[in-house]
Amino acid sequence: MQFRLQHDSTQMEAGAERKVSCEIAAVAFEREATLLAAARLGSGVKVTGFLAARSRTSKSVVLHATEVEFKEGD
Description:
This protein has one domain: CATH 2.40.50.140. It is built from one helix and four strands; from the N terminus they run E-E-H-E-E. A hairpin with a 2-residue loop joins strand 1 and strand 2 (16-28). With 74 residues, it is mainly β. It has a four-stranded mixed beta sheet with strand order 1-2-4-3, covered by helices on one side. The chain has one helix at 30-37; strands at 2-13, 16-28, 45-53, 61-70.
């Protein structure tokens, strides 16, 4: 299953707060794909995995989700 993750947070960098917002392409298989397919759009989720090139000839990255955990209350 292919999907996109949106991340928004505030991080500390060089002693100052910095707002961070980004979107990343991701893929999931088996159990994780089933969990994500049933999720409500916009649900809070923690995804663990690894980054890899989209293809052998591409330099863009995709996150391979190996573990999906939904945040309580989302």
